[in-house]
Amino acid sequence: MTPESSGAAERSGLAARQAELVAALIAGGAAPPGFDAARLDAARRALVRKRADEAAKAWPLLAASCGADWQRAFAAHRAGHEPVGALRDGWDVARALHRRGELNSGAAAELAERESAFRYDGQGAPHPRRGVRFRRSVAKLLARR
Amino acid sequence: MAETAAPLPAGVGIGWRPEIAGWVAGRIAPAFCEVIAESIAPAATPRGVVELRERGIPVVPHGVRLSLGSTEPVEDRRVAHLAACAAALQAPLVSEHVAFVRAGGREVGHLLPVPRTREALNVLTGNIRRTQAELDVPLALEPIAALFDWPDDEYTEPDFLTALLERTGAVLLLDVANVYANAVNRGQDPEAVLDRFPLERVAYVHVAGGAEHPDDPGLYHDTHTHPVPSAVLGLVELLVERTAAAPPIMLERDGRYPPAAELEAELDAIAVAAGHLAVVR
So what's the pLDDT on residue A8? Predict the structure, then answer.
């Protein structure tokens, strides 16, 4: 084995282990062997808290409606699910709480406004609804005059 | 080949964020600022950042998503973006982390530690050299705060950093709060660890707040959303004693912004600890 191919093998081993670690931290994967499981748990929870803080910026009324319980509510719905960005992370939480009738009027209005402006299938990026795009382009044209 | 230490002015700076742009513009005179590279478009820099440049304040693009520690080669478009930010801001240097943020097609949304092994050193060296080849300014590397280590570490963190800087000629962005966090969480003495870092390579310094979380007693989290603990300011004092001239130093605050008076008091405390002039107007 040449030094180059040995280096490549080492790196592919490292690549697999990095992927395994990432899966354990954000996608509900098993902890890779040899790591301190309690520390990985702490890191996993810290990552979810950071996502909750970011989602709160994108969904201020939703976060406010949960008050001090926001971090827990977010973790209950999103821990173990891969991060999909603050907008979608918060959207998924908002829909789950809405289904259970747990949104206050402000948070419900925030969700309703976004549901009417975007088409979001819960899987991919939300897309502006056609009518909204049309109204926006008309508004831009009018503003140019 | 060693790059010359960064030409940033001595003094206290702050990480520019949109949420505090009004305060930075109106209330303080930072020696320099940093902006998250991935948060700006070089062709349409935020007005607050343009105004900093008009005031003659250097702005350093700080990358968070290059993922220099990933086994895949660093992506050309990410390096090009960092270089374009440096050009647009006429930055004296840029910075990134000794970390990886994606693997196996997944984005973590946070900085993760690499194993401190010879293999990881090779991976990092390759990606750092690829990045440096596209930059006209020095690259500063920042060791991260991590809540865990890899089981196969072969180097201590200061030795790993020293080897990496020797191989790449990069300068050091030393985050004193990260040194504190890692030492506490590894059961080490922060002052002894700080002493073993290659302090002669420091280009500039970060400080940030953190705290324990009720779910993890005894574990220190480098949150950037809490006040800077006095123990971290104590480490800043020690660092300044160890360096020939007090290095440029800046506060990173990334959320849960307190009232302006609290942030100003924090900047004043950093200035005192580092022996710099106050930045509050």
Answer: 54
Query: Distance (Å, rounded) from C-alpha A57 to C-alpha A89?
Result: 11
Q: List pLDDT tens digits, range B161-175.
A: 999 999 999 999 999
Q: What is the pLDDT of residues B131-155, one digit of tens each?
A: 999 999 999 999 999 999 999 999 9
Nearest to B103 among A22, A47, A51 (CB): A22
Q: How far apart are CA A36 and CA A34, in angstroms?
A: 7
Give CA–CA dist B50/A75, Å, rounded.
38
The residues that bridge with B97 in the sheet, in sequence order, are B142
Is the pLDDT higher at B70 or at A131? Answer: B70
The alpha carbon dihedral of B234, A47, A96, A122 has a sign of positive
What was the pLDDT predicted at A131? Answer: 74
Type and span of the H or E element at B103 = strand B100-103
Residues of chain B contacting residue A22, judged by C-beta atoms under 8 Å apart = 102-104, 106, 108, 112
Tell me which residue of B51, B60, B61 sits closest to B9, measured CA to CA. B60
Beta carbons of B103 and A51 less than 8 Å apart: no
Please report, in angstroms and rounded to a whole number, the separation of the first and last CA atoms in chain B: 41
3-state SS assignment for residue B111? strand
Percent of chain B with pLDDT over 90: 94
d(CA A104, CA B148): 39
Q: Please provide residue B156's backbone torsions phi and psi, each rounded to the nearest 5 degrees.
A: -75, 165
Contact B8, B203 (CB under 8 A): yes
Contacts of A20 in chain B (CB under 8 A): 104
The single-letter code of the amino acid at B234 is G
Mean pLDDT of the A103-114 span: 96
pTM of the model: 0.91
d(CA A5, CA B223): 41
Which residues, other chains included, contact B156 with Cβ-Cβ below 8 Å and sequence gap of 6+?
Answer: B116, B196
Q: Is the pLDDT of residue B3 over 90?
A: no
Put simply, the answer to whether A47 touches B255 (Cβ < 8 Å) is no
pLDDT confidence of residue B280 = 78
Mutate: best of A4, A18, A44, partner B, most B CBs <10 A? A18
For residues A62-91, average pLDDT: 95
Query: What 3-state DSSP class applies to B140?
Result: strand
Put simply, whether A11 touches B (Cβ < 8 Å) is: yes
CB B13 within 8 A of CB B30: yes
**pLDDT for residue A12 is more than 80:** no
